[in-house]
């Protein structure tokens, strides 16, 4: 081709969906257009389904509102939250791709210290495509990054690392603070750009934020249930946290890794701390019991699939957390409904094989 240079095909262009929960118009996509336009979007419209959500021209997307969720899942739609960003997990369920990136609609392109626009999606893909080190901490952080490596004393037998299931990005400007912190520090902004990606060690929990998050849907998708939040529920803004605690316990059990750090996005909107306090307050004291539960949770060796692990975890939630509040009985049941809905929309290969055998081989 004379002189012209073919633009490289974006990484995982046909293997990744971008899931966006929204109650607003999606003008924020204009800023992300250079990075997001090649990818398919799954928009989960929360709130009033009769409201028209405007999507900028030129994006390839599918949009689901509450009527769609109810139509597709029937009674199982009860496990998908309403009037809370937790609804985004419906997008994970309907996707057919190997990878998911989810971002909030008040998150914009941040700049790195050199002033260059950060392609958050590209960094998440790099994080997911290279191994994690959950079993032995590398003091030079991510050893697979350009300009880094394993340090002296790192066992060579462990340098292959573990498959990466989750890439947890961070935020400049408005930090993801809980309501009490936001109330006492209303003007605090995160201006610190820390140039690091690190694996969260096995056996350690972390507060997963759904604002700037990517994961391998085939490795860990069924664990990414964002719980029962919002309308009709006693708690909100613990959707991503709950998914993160379940996911980390299951990743530890299955030998998968979770990374946190780069990439940064620019979080532009501070939600109302008083409204947030009302949503969070039960969670603030419940989590003093929830965290020890997850810290001590163990899964049997015969739980070898994410679904099996998740169902086992739901049983333990029902047995051990219902004494904290009856809500956890409801949540444990919703966890089972989630897996049933997931498997209905995503029949596994062995499941399909069973199906074809039971229906008799068509071409004989
Ligand atoms: O009822 C709702 C409210 C919001 N959304 C969409 O969800 C995301 C996040 O909304 P917003 O940016 O307004 O709220 P934050 O407090 O900044 O969100 C953080 O809190 C976490 C707990 O939910 C959340 O994951 C964090 O990102 C936007 O895209 C809204 O449009 C919604 O769908 N339904
Ligand atoms: Mn926000």
Short description:
With 364 residues, the chain is of the alpha/beta class. The chain has helices at residues 29-36, 66-73, 89-94, 120-129, 179-184, 217-220, 239-254, 273-296, 306-321, 327-345, 349-358, and strands at residues 16-22, 40-45, 60-64, 99-103, 107-108, 164-173, 197-199, 212-216, 257-267. The protein is built from eleven helices and nine strands.
Classified by CATH, the class is Alpha Beta
Structural class: alpha/beta
Largest sheet: 9 strands, mixed
Helix content: 25-40%
Number of domains: 1
| CATH architect. name | Alpha-Beta Complex
Uncertain regions: pLDDT < 50 for 5+ in a row? 360-364
CATH topology: Spore Coat Polysaccharide Biosynthesis Protein SpsA, Chain A
- The share of residues in extended strands comes to 5-15%
If helices are DSSP runs of H or I spanning 4 or more residues, what is the number of helices?
A: 11
Mean pLDDT: 94
Order of H and E elements: EHEEHHEEHEHEEHHEHHHH
Strand element count: 9
